[in-house]
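Saturday, quiet lab. Running sequence design on the structure tokens for the scaffold JK sent over.
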């Protein structure tokens, strides 16, 4: 588990970049799973017309910059799960 607890509820629209600085996509919405009122992952859409989405768990998030609205990950984008 991450040492810092991030509030993922207000991250819709943020850009997501992997550990190498490559763009993964834009946050579509937070995803809830284990706890009722606390999101534990993000749904990230790759492009405007893309149907592919990636699941970004909270453990993969390295930092969230609210000023630039960018989320930096601690993993490579190939290490993220794809879903429809």
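Result came back. Writing it out in full:
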């Amino acid at each position: 588990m991450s040492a810092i607890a991030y509030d993922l509820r207000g991250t819709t629209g943020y850009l997501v970049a992997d550990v190498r600085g490559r763009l993964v996509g834009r946050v579509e919405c937070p995803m809830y799973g284990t706890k009722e009122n606390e999101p534990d992952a993000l749904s990230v859409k790759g492009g405007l017309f893309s149907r592919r989405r990636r699941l970004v768990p909270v453990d993969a998030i390295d930092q969230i910059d609210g000023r630039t609205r960018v989320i930096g990950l601690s993993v490579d984008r190939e290490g993220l799960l794809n879903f429809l």
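Notes for JK: Residues 74 and 83 are 20 Å apart (CA to CA). The two ends are 26 Å apart (CA to CA). Ask whether to fix the surface positions before the next round.
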